[in-house]
Every structure is written in structure tokens, then in C-alpha cells.
Amino acid sequence: MNFLELATLLLLLASVFSIINLRILKLPQTIGLMVLAIVLSLVVLVTGLIIPDFLSFATSLTQEFDFSVLLIDVMLPFLLFAGAISVDVHELLKDKVTILLLASFGVLFSTFAVGSGLYWLISQPLLGMESLGLTYVDCLLFGALVAPTDPIAVLAMVKKMNLSKITETRIAGESLFNDGIGVVVFLTLLSMKIEGVENVTLQSVGSLFATEVIGGIVLGAAMGYLGLKLVKYIENTHVELEVLITLSLVLLVPVISHMFHFSAVLGVVVMGLFLNQNIDTDNQAAGVQKAMGDYVYKFWHLVDETLNAILFILIGLEIIPVLQNFEIGYLALIIFVILLVVVARGIGVFIPIKLLSFKKTFEKNTALIITWGGLRGGLSIALALNLPDSIGTGKDLILILTYGVVLFTILVQGLTLKKIVK
């Protein structure tokens, strides 16, 4: 199947699934698509038992492209940019300390808490998992890939919750930035895994982390400033040209990031926030003019919805090989890891909010809402698939645990988040 045929199939499935969810399931888009994607994978597996060639065809689809590269290098920049231009920048800037502390501390704490907890559990002789050969760094890598929340899923849910403006901005902003920080932490740990812990120094880790984070932010700011000057020059008279400018910049940021080893994820988020600024921020009474025309925002909303639908179908296809390797004995481990992820997320959110509450005001149960709203998605799965084969049989276990966490957060937390908010 060539690229055109594959793209056609994915778009067709995305359209059909969206219609089924809209008319029959009537679930939030993210959850409905996830449910249908799981049903698709189960139908493929059952059909494969009867017609083995059909299963081979379905699994070959996922082998024709690298899901990890497709998501991180292509889809994620588009989705994060679309999310960034939908956030209220002025509210975000007012509360930037809260958002950055929640994103950075939350990811780092969750990485080490989940990684350490998993390593302790598989080290227990009674479980007999020593043969998997998972090292402490491998477990930390798992902690890093499930630490960042999925901004696409989170933003889609938050918009329908009728939360206050400040709480909505805090949740959306934290979700956008913890993706970038999570990817940087994962890549730092991955370099330790590949090069060997004994060959890694504190200086090299700090240098890599600083290059990724600072480089990504500076690049995003520079591209955002350039884009802002260009769209101001056009003055909303040629909206199709504004679309072309934003498209080219979103594609350009990852290319430059790979050349200089910057964080493309942080780059597109910062660029999106720059382009989302208003031209006349002082003249509020006269009505503030947006830097880009409404057509541009509608275009990126369409891109967001389309890629989001395709993403969950790809997740459904990627889960097929994982289900084939699933063993019933993994069920208890999955439940333990889910509890560990939720508790670590809760503590990672509660501590910054408690520290900041001396100077800032938080709505009642904000920590609980942010904790339960921490949905995981395609990024976690893409990072899990990006793990080196040197991990051995433990990679299959990490993939299974990752899918368990993703399914729980989207289906259980996503479906109950509205009740929690109420």
C-alpha cells in the first residue's frame, strides 16, 4: 500500500468513526475515537483468527511507516501548534510561574517516582520478572514516557468542562509545556541508556538538557517573532497567505531543531503562543484585534480535529501486535502501575500548588482536577515504540504497560472527569 492509499484509508476511517461517535456513541470526540480504535483492533484480531492473511495485512500497515517518527516529527508539531494558538496567552503569561512549575516539577517527580516504583516491583523474587533484564534506567525511561500528559486529549476535554478561565488556562498551559519537558527528560535518559551510565557525566546531562530546552524556547521565540511580523505586515487582508506562513513555520521548526538538537516540541508551542498574541493589547475598550484572521484559527482547528482522529486510529492499529504478546499475568502489574502513575501525578501536582497557594489563589480541588485531567495519549506510545531494542523482551512489557496507562487515563479518567469537576 503506497502513501496515498494509506492516507485515504486513514481519512476514510477517521470520517466514519467520527460520524459513528457523533450519531451513536455521543461521547467526547477523544474518548469516542479511542473506543472505536480499540474495537477496530479487536475486530482485526478476531478476523485474523479466521483469516490469517487479513491479520498479516493489518499488521503490515503499521510496519510501512514509523509511528514514532510520524507522530513526534510530523503530527505532534501540528497538534501542539493548533493547541498553543487556542490558549489565552495573556492569562497564561499572568500565571506563567505556576504553569512552568507544574510542568517541570510534575514531570521530573513522576518520572522518578514511577520508574523507582516499577523497578522495585519487578525486582521482587516472587514475581519472577528478573529474566526481563530491565535496569533502573529502563524503568526511568518508562516513568519519563508516561509522565507527560496528552495536550490534544486534555484540551479537547477541558474546553467542555465550564471551568473558570484561570483554571482552564493552568490545565492547558501545563499540558502544553510538560510535553516538551517530558520529551527532553526521555531523550536525556535515552542517551544515558545508549552511551552507558558509566560514560555519562553530570555536565553532559546538563548540557543536553539545556540545549534541548533553551534552544527550543529561543528557536520558537525567534520563529514566532518572525511570523508575527509577517502576519502583521499582511494585516489580515490575505488570510490564505497567513495559513501558508503558519504552515511553513510549523514545518520549519522541527527541521531546524533536528539540525541543532533543540526541542521541536517546545519550539512549536512557544511559536504558537507568539503568533497568538494580539496586536493592540493596550486598547481593550476599542476591541482587541488578533494577529491572525479567524480563518487561520478555523483552519488550524480543522487540522487539529483531523489529525486527532487519525492519531487514535493509528493507536488502534499499533495496539494489535501488543495484544498478541499480552499475558494474563501482566494484569496485576498493569493495575499497580496505573495506581502508581495516578498517585505520582497527584503528588507532583499537589506540592507545587501547596507551595504557590501562599501567594496565589487556587479554586477548591484544583489539584484533584489537574491530577485526574492528566490524560495520556499518542506521545507516550510513540516514545515507548522509540525505545532501543537493546532493552530486549522488557520492551514488550513496557509497551503493554504504556497502553494500559493510556487506555485507563482516556477511558476511565476521561469519562469521569466531568463528574469530578462538578
Task: Outline the structure in words.
The chain is mostly helical. The protein has one domain: Na+/H+ antiporter like fold (Up-down Bundle), CATH 1.20.1530.20. 77% of the residues lie in helices and 0% in strands. It contains 17 helices and no strands. It is globular, with a radius of gyration of 21 Å. 42% of the residues are buried.
Major sheet size, sense and barrel closure = none
Question: What is the number of helices?
Answer: 17
CATH topology: Na+/H+ antiporter like fold
Shape: globular
Secondary structure category:
mainly alpha
On the 0 to 100 scale, the average pLDDT is: 86
Domain tally: 1
SSE pattern, N- to C-terminal: HHHHHHHHHHHHHHHHH
Which ranges are low-confidence, i.e. pLDDT below 50, for 5 or more consecutive residues? 279-288
Architecture per CATH nomenclature, i.e. the level-2 architecture: Up-down Bundle
Helix content: over 70%
- Please give the radius of gyration in angstroms: 21 Å
Number of DSSP E strands: 0
